[in-house]
Amino acid sequence: MTRPYADDLRARAVARYEAGESIRPIAAALQISPSCVSK
Protein backbone atom coordinates (compact mmCIF):
# COMPACT_ATOMS: atom_id res chain seq x y z
CA MET A 1 0.00 0.00 0.00
CA THR A 2 1.25 3.49 -0.79
CA ARG A 3 1.97 6.10 1.83
CA PRO A 4 -0.43 9.04 2.22
CA TYR A 5 0.62 12.43 0.91
CA ALA A 6 2.34 14.80 3.32
CA ASP A 7 0.17 17.12 5.39
CA ASP A 8 1.61 20.25 3.76
CA LEU A 9 0.73 18.94 0.29
CA ARG A 10 -2.82 18.19 1.43
CA ALA A 11 -3.10 21.66 2.97
CA ARG A 12 -1.95 23.31 -0.28
CA ALA A 13 -4.50 21.31 -2.29
CA VAL A 14 -7.32 22.23 0.11
CA ALA A 15 -6.34 25.90 0.12
CA ARG A 16 -6.37 26.03 -3.69
CA TYR A 17 -9.73 24.24 -3.82
CA GLU A 18 -11.27 26.58 -1.25
CA ALA A 19 -9.93 29.54 -3.25
CA GLY A 20 -12.06 28.35 -6.17
CA GLU A 21 -9.54 26.50 -8.33
CA SER A 22 -10.73 23.39 -10.18
CA ILE A 23 -9.55 19.90 -9.30
CA ARG A 24 -7.61 19.14 -12.49
CA PRO A 25 -5.45 22.30 -12.43
CA ILE A 26 -4.68 21.72 -8.75
CA ALA A 27 -3.63 18.15 -9.47
CA ALA A 28 -1.45 19.23 -12.39
CA ALA A 29 0.23 22.00 -10.39
CA LEU A 30 0.95 19.73 -7.42
CA GLN A 31 1.78 16.70 -9.61
CA ILE A 32 -0.79 14.42 -7.98
CA SER A 33 -3.80 12.61 -9.42
CA PRO A 34 -7.17 14.39 -9.63
CA SER A 35 -8.78 11.63 -7.56
CA CYS A 36 -6.45 12.47 -4.68
CA VAL A 37 -7.54 16.10 -4.79
CA SER A 38 -11.23 15.20 -4.76
CA LYS A 39 -10.88 13.04 -1.63
From TrEMBL:
The lineage of its organism: Bacteria, Pseudomonadati, Pseudomonadota, Alphaproteobacteria, Hyphomicrobiales. It holds the Pfam family HTH_23. This is Transposase. InterPro entries: Homeodomain-like_sf, WH-like_DNA-bd_sf. It comes from Methylobacterium brachiatum.
